[in-house]
Design brief:
Blueprint lengths: L6 H44 L4 E3 L15 H24 L8 H26 L15 E3 L11 H14 L27 E3 L15 H24 L8 H26 L15 E3 L1
Antiparallel strand pairs: 1-2, 3-4
Helix pairs in contact: 2-3, 2-4, 3-4, 3-6, 4-6, 5-6
């Protein structure tokens, strides 16, 4: 038979039950708060994901090549690999520089230099094939890359996007050494297109005066590359003037001087290779690649 509890026991039971209810309610509230906090963090992560700068997509080069002569295969593969590496570097830089510069920063500091590099590398690929077979035409159309804002993958055709990087240096380097126009100055091929402007001018070491005797068979190619150095330096000076006030403190170095150096390295390398086909290949010319800004 059950025994009735005394009155004080009932009150005690009621008190204990109420306390338990309060504890449980607190746990529920705390749990809800924690759940809300977790959800909030997740939302922030999603927001960062949505704010992704996107990726860079480049046309595939490998699939557009004709049959590659066996003698050129190693060089072709090396340049295609360079295209991949350069595209990866451009994608990384895209992420690292989010929020920097003005509305044209990505085009000026990343896509433009990448295109230049790709032009040069793709040109090297075509030249390599052309040594023992018909040189492919129209591959330069594959050089420009685009920015995909939605996180679309950056390498169309994989090996393509970056080889240009190595190449770009070549392409760009092609036009920047003012040594053809200012051969009379030591370092005078600086091509100071912007003389007297607030932006300053870019000065590059003279290449022509540092060359050894040029074989007659290489003279035309050497002159062409020296002229390209001049043209490219003039373009860099013009860009210096056109972008005054854009970007942060490192804009000129990242968007103009850095790409210019890469281009000069590639062009100067082509000059050395050209001489080396029929004479001793000159060494150390790469030290002439870097240019400086003169205010």
């Amino acid at each position: 038979m059950s025994r009735a509890l005394p009155k004080y026991d009932k009150r005690r039971v009621a008190f204990i039950g109420g306390a338990a209810a309060v504890v449980l309610s607190g746990a529920v509230i705390a749990g809800s708060a924690l759940a809300g906090e977790t959800s909030g963090q997740g939302g922030a992560q999603n927001a960062r994901t949505l704010a992704s700068p996107g990726t860079i997509t480049c046309p595939d080069v490998r699939s557009q090549l004709p049959a590659v002569p066996a003698s050129a295969q190693a060089e072709i593969d090396r340049n295609l690999a360079l295209l991949d590496t350069q595209l990866q570097e451009a994608d990384k830089r895209l992420v690292d520089t989010v929020g920097q510069g003005g509305p044209n920063f990505v085009q000026n500091a990343i896509l433009g230099p990448l295109k230049d590099k790709r032009v040069a590398t793709i040109d090297r690929i075509a030249i390599s094939i052309g040594r023992t077979a018909a040189k492919p035409q129209g591959l330069d159309a594959l050089a420009p890359c685009t920015l995909n804002q939605g996180g679309v993958t950056g390498t169309v055709g994989g090996n393509d996007g970056n080889a240009a990087g190595a190449a770009g240096a070549a392409g760009a380097a092609t036009g920047n050494n003012s040594n053809t126009g200012n051969a009379g100055n030591t370092g005078g091929n600086t091509g100071n297109a912007g003389t007297g402007t607030a932006a300053g001018t870019i000065t590059c070491p003279d290449v022509r005066s540092q060359l050894p005797a040029v074989p007659a068979s290489a003279q035309a190619e050497i002159d062409r590359n020296l002229a390209l150095l001049d043209t490219q330096l003039q373009e860099a000076d013009k860009r210096l003037v056109d972008t005054v006030g854009q970007g942060g403190p490192n804009f000129v170095q990242n968007a103009i001087l850095g790409p210019l150096k890469d281009k000069r390295v590639a062009t100067i390398d082509r000059i050395a290779i050209s001489i080396g086909r029929t004479a001793a290949k000159p060494q150390g010319l790469d030290s002439l690649a870097a240019c400086t800004l003169t205010k």
